[in-house]
């Protein structure tokens, strides 16, 4: 397995981690925030993001050509759901699980001839596009430093990408669908487990307000999978009650993952940026 790190995107978290670092020298205040005292936390929310990406489904001797979602007329704004759970085993060790979903679909007229998954699509064809990219995350984290108002963790785990892109020829008349040509349907799928490294930082300004930042990255070749992954998230949280909180922030995700198959390969290259909103519950 080959593993190398990537340095792109660090600037996204620089301000927040500067605040986190500065918090080390702040006055120690006991019992400053519920995040540091509860063993379990659940986040549920949504991303509203601008997304760009391309998919290559190369087969046999056909020349690889990326199918770009934006060039094919797909909506660039993606809405996805998130679900996260964190459990603290003791003062040093914790684990987290997460699930994130991206999806979009559109009907459009192809502006040029192209080949996808070994099938030819001609200019002017009416096509239905459906794209999904689900991400599942499992991490184990070790606390490097913590006190009554901050926590800094380092760890790693596994990202599993489950992505698919389906293109279907559709026969229309005056804008009304008459039939779908299943013989001309092409679908590229990829389910890839990719290891990752991650660091998180938390700093409480007071019992109500806090900031949380996460940075994850890796570049690896594992068996028939290869890929680069970068993830950053900053969110500010307000505690409505001791257990219930509201958070808003910004997230950046880059995922470029390829799977080798018998007749060629599938490659998904995606970039997402946007705001997040979530509800948290601690117990």
- Specify the structural class: mainly beta
**Number of separate strands:** 14
Number of helices: 1
Helices and strands, in order, run as: EHEEEEEEEEEEEEE
Which sheet architecture does the biggest sheet show?
10 strands, antiparallel, barrel
Query: What is the averaged pLDDT score?
Result: 80
Description:
β12 and β13 form a beta hairpin. The two termini are 39 Å apart. Helix content is 3%, strand content 71%. With 283 residues, the protein is mainly beta. The chain has 1 helix and 14 strands. The strands form 2 sheets. Strands 2-4-5-8-9-10-11-12-13-14 form a 10-stranded antiparallel barrel. Strands 6-7 form a two-stranded antiparallel sheet. Residues 1-30 have low confidence and may be disordered.
Please outline what is shown here.
The protein has 283 residues and is mainly beta. It has one helix at 14-22; strands at residues 2-4, 40-59, 67-68, 77-88, 93-109, 114-116, 119-121, 126-146, 150-173, 176-204, 209-222, 225-239, 244-261, 264-282.
Comma- or semicolon-separated keywords:
283 residues, mainly beta, ten-stranded antiparallel barrel, two-stranded antiparallel sheet
